[in-house]
Amino acid sequence: MKRIIIDIISEAFGADEIDIVMPNEYRELGAIVWSKKGQAMSRKKVDAESDLHTIIHEWLGGTANEPAVCKGGKQVCMPVAKGGTRLALIVIRVDEPAYQVSQVPLIQAMANHIAVAFDNAMLYQIAITDELTGLYSPRYFRQAISKRHAMFDEFGEKMTLLMVDIDDFKKINDTYGHPAGDAILKEVGRCLLSAIRTDDLAFRYGGEEFTVILPETSPSAGRAVAERMRSLIEHFPFKADQHVLTVTVSIGIASWPASADTIKEIILEADKALYEAKHSGKNRVVVRTV
């Protein structure tokens, strides 16, 4: 969605740079940035001394709710909102003065169209997201893996699938209660996300089990990611009833084309690898090869 918006804005406004800030991303001092020079979209931290940091504070503070042309025609600030809800702040820049105050109505009209698109995208995101962990849902897993299999069929694109299961999770629920268990599920989800790339996909598969799709990834690279996850979770200070718990996971790995050719096969092989990890001591990674 952000990629499409950047393409539209860069063409319509002849932009040299574009920043997109979402309210939740700002809490982490982050923004999506694009530059004409590199034609690349990336995520960056917002420097507390930067102009963007000031603009964001004004936007969240309610003093920058309308589109504005500033810096002598070199910058446009485009707040995007719907029904009083802030959806995004888009900052557009050019190297040479190009924007006029007379363009503000056009900027507002575009902001209104973008607001509808963002709102629809957010509704879709809610529909495919697990409410507890914030990871993708089991239903969306089926769609995502089908798409990756189509890429494998057409282009031979590799993919690695991780099946992740929290060790002895029932004991945690029985000892500390389900609220503590839910808190641990959330934290494990965050650990998974922190260990993967932007293009990788993490899902809550069911209960205390998770899956991760690693596109264009070999089994050896998948093992490296899985070991990073396993170690990160093992050393994370999980808390329950003022106790700090050590939580571990077992991870099974299967890949196209190394261990499977179909969706059913790759899920089955990853599940077999997970079973082996569980029954050979837990807190370990097993790669399935056939």
How are the secondary structure elements laid out?
Elements: H1 2-13, E1 17-21, H2 23-26, E2 30-35, E3 40-45, H3 51-60, E4 68-70, E5 75-82, E6 85-93, H4 104-127, H5 138-155, E7 159-166, H6 169-176, H7 178-194, E8 201-206, E9 209-215, H8 219-234, E10 238-240, E11 243-245, E12 249-256, H9 263-279, E13 285-287
Parallel strand pairs: 12-13
Antiparallel strand pairs: 1-2, 1-6, 2-3, 4-5, 5-6, 7-9, 7-12, 8-9, 10-11
Helix pairs in contact: 6-7
Characterize the overall form. Answer: elongated
First CA to last CA: what distance? 39 Å
By DSSP (H or I, 4+ residues per run), the number of helices equals 9
What are the segments in which pLDDT stays under 50 over at least 5 consecutive residues? none
Derived structural class: alpha+beta
Strand order of the largest sheet: 3-2-1-6-5-4
The major β-sheet equals:
6 strands, antiparallel
The percent range for helix content is 40-55%
Quantity of strands, as a count: 13
Taking all residues together, what is the mean pLDDT? 91
- Name the helix and strand elements from N-terminus to C-terminus, one letter apiece: HEHEEHEEEHHEHHEEHEEEHE
What is the gyration radius calculated from CA atoms?
A: 22 Å
- The fraction of residues assigned to DSSP E strands is 25-35%
Written overview of the protein:
This protein has 290 residues and is an alpha+beta fold. The protein has helices spanning 2-13, 23-26, 51-60, 104-127, 138-155, 169-176, 178-194, 219-234, 263-279, and strands spanning 17-21, 30-35, 40-45, 68-70, 75-82, 85-93, 159-166, 201-206, 209-215, 238-240, 243-245, 249-256, 285-287. It has a 6-stranded antiparallel beta sheet with strand order 3-2-1-6-5-4, sandwiched between helices. It has a 5-stranded mixed beta sheet with strand order 8-9-7-12-13, sandwiched between helices. A two-stranded antiparallel sheet has the order 10-11. Strand 10 (238-240) and strand 11 form a beta hairpin. Helix 6 crosses helix 7.
